[in-house]
Design a protein that fits this description.
The complex is a heterodimer of chains A (313) and B (250). Chain A is mainly alpha-helical. Chain A has helices at 2-19, 22-42, 53-70, 74-96, 101-121, 158-179, 182-192, 194-199, 204-230, 240-253, 260-274, 281-296, 300-309, and strands spanning 131-132, 138-139, 143-144, 149-151, 154-156, 232-233. Chain A is globular, with a radius of gyration of 19 Å. Classes of the chains: A mainly alpha (313), B alpha/beta (250). The interface between A and B is medium-sized, with 27 and 37 residues.
Chain lengths: 313, 250
């Protein structure tokens, strides 16, 4: 049953660019991976980070810089961005896990604001303008990611799409594997009852730090992908709005579920683009939807569905 | 000389000038069920937290098997074989009882940091987990949601989880607190059963439980030891009667 579900989802992902505008689809994938990485921390370890934009946006700057100014190929750019998020995650995580609950959230927020400030002021980030015109380049120096194919009269950037889709699948698989690993079971124990986990002999700080670094790394990977898709690294992606948005996506879709963050991210991004004509009212509308969701189905869309079907999704 | 598994020397803990525990010299003999009793606020739970390093002592030393463990962290104490329970039942509520016990068994496999490995490798622990659940009478509930179990069952599950770690010394913090008579009997006989080849140190309010189970009793009052000895002896001690049981109880 599960295998069929996954096969259908992958099939949909492969066919999506022929149905949906590819850049929009890639945006969904980037935010979907971002939310899934965030959910590893909130949903499976019980840690609320309010600074995940630092990893998402930070990695998009690093990737943009590596590809545009250093001239690396896109896969090395994404790798560099992802690794930078891992290092940053290690630094932020080491400090933040010393505190719990709201204090943990505040430490992550404060450190993320430092990253925002660096992105605003550093000489290589383009300040208010961000990094623009990041080239997509040639994958491994061979495959032109900017190439556009004409299918049925409409131009499609399929090379880039399948590269992004592959990266998304890789990232999502790592998250899935982590959740369903011996390590993931200990994370759930920490989420459920931290002192009991300690009294069973688990050194919870180590587990929390590892979870934090994995989550930050994959959030960074999503940001790195996004900078190739939009050829842009901007302040929006490192600001605390982005940190808040990923919390919203995860809660909306279903915290602590495998597919929830994807559903949440897809919903929020779709709403933002569908409702973009109404201007600034969009924040109010999404806010209202969020309130309704929290009041009516606290477990999120997928969370409620999973409860009805009595199986984890 | 007796073989002490756990010893404290002049163990003290002050909270901002208030001495919660002062100069406690506790000796727990291997193989015994040792009960720590005393009126509310006598410092019993504080002693427990000191022993498992959830609190750091202000002064004094703790010896486990003759080795000083005063400077260790809670998880290290657990790794050495001292496993505690808590006053409020300590279970993982959204997991099944089977998963609860399996988490305890998983620790010794050394694969707990492997996030790249499938959890299928945990299946081989399930047989042992079911055995342990069976020991505490929970094998029929292995797949339920733990949070929805009755209170007495959660405490039984906690004991099964503790046993999974093969502890040398079990610390039970009020195992029968808040239970109905039926559950109290069930837990009492369970503790008796699992005490074979193990040492148990327990905090307990219920004197009936203490009198049936404990080989030795230490009475704490205002953070200090008031009396120590077998139940029959301690229960006749006039100071204890006065301080703890109230003089009208005889």
């Amino acid at each position: 049953m599960n295998k069929i579900l996954w096969a259908v989802l992958i099939g949909m992902g492969l066919l999506a660019p022929f149905v949906v505008y590819p850049v929009f689809m890639m945006k969904l994938l980037c935010f979907g991976l971002f939310a899934a990485a965030f959910n590893l921390l909130l949903g499976y370890t019980g840690l609320l980070s309010f600074g995940h934009a630092a990893f998402f946006g930070g990695a998009s700057y690093v990737t943009g810089y590596l590809v545009k100014s250093v001239g690396l190929t896109p896969e090395l750019g994404v790798l560099g961005g992802t690794l930078s998020a891992a290092l940053l995650g290690y630094a932020v995580g080491s400090l933040a896990i010393r505190r719990q609950g709201i204090y943990f959230a505040m430490v992550t927020l404060a450190l993320a604001q430092i990253v925002y400030f660096v992105a605003l002021k550093a000489p290589f980030t383009g300040g208010e303008d961000g990094l623009q015109g990041i080239p997509r380049g040639d994958l491994f120096g061979l495959i032109d990611l900017g190439r556009v194919y004409t299918v049925g009269g409409s131009p499609l950037g399929l090379n880039l799409y399948y590269f992004i889709f592959f990266m998304f699948c890789l990232g999502f698989w790592i998250i899935y594997r982590t959740i369903h690993s011996p390590f993931g079971h200990v994370l759930k124990a920490i989420r459920e009852n931290e002192t009991r986990a300690v009294s069973l002999g688990y050194q919870v700080e180590r587990f929390k730090l590892m979870a934090f670094v994995i989550s930050a790394t994959l959030a960074g990977m999503a940001g790195a992908m996004k900078s190739l898709v939009f050829q842009l690294a901007s302040l929006t992606d490192v600001s605390w709005h982005a940190s808040g948005e990923v919390v919203l996506m995860t809660l909306l879709g279903g915290v602590g579920t495998v597919l929830g963050p994807l559903v949440g991210a897809f919903t929020v991004v779709t709403l933002q683009s569908e409702l973009s004509s109404v201007g600034s009212w969009i924040t109010v509308i999404i806010g209202a939807i969020f309130v309704v969701c929290v009041l009516l189905f606290r477990r999120g869309v997928v969370g409620e569905l999973s409860r009805l079907l009595k199986r984890p999704l | 000389m007796a073989d002490y598994i756990l010893e404290t020397r002049k163990l003290s803990k002050e909270f901002k000038g208030f001495a919660a525990v002062s100069d406690v010299n506790l000796q727990v003999e291997r193989g015994h069920i040792h009960a720590l009793i005393g009126p509310n606020g006598a410092g019993k739970t504080t002693v427990f937290n000191l022993l498992t390093k959830f609190l750091t002592p202000t002064a004094g030393t703790i010896l486990f098997n003759g080795k000083d463990i005063t400077g260790e962290k809670p998880a290290q104490i657990a790794l050495k074989g001292v496993i505690r329970s808590f006053q409020i039942s300590a279970v993982f509520p959204n997991l099944t009882p089977l998963e609860n016990v399996r988490l305890a068994l998983q620790r010794s496999t050394g694969n707990s940091h492997q996030f790249w490995k499938s959890d299928r490798c945990l299946q081989k622990l399930e047989g042992r987990a079911l055995e342990l659940l069976d020991q505490v009478g929970l094998s029929g509930l292995a797949g339920e949601v733990t949070g929805e179990l009755a209170y007495g069952r959660k405490r039984a599950l906690e004991i099964a989880t503790t046993l999974a770690l093969e502890p040398e010394l079990i610390l039970l913090d009020e195992p029968t607190q808040g239970m109905g008579a039926e559950d109290v009997d069930r837990i009492t006989s369970l503790v008796k059963r699992v005490s074979a080849n193990r040492t148990i140190l327990m905090v307990e309010h219920n004197l009936k439980v203490v009198s049936t189970l404990a080989d030795r009793i230490t009475v704490l009052q205002r953070g200090s030891i008031l009396a120590e000895g077998p139940y029959a002896e301690v229960s006749r001690n006039p100071q204890v009667l006065e301080a703890y049981m109230g003089s009208e109880h005889v």
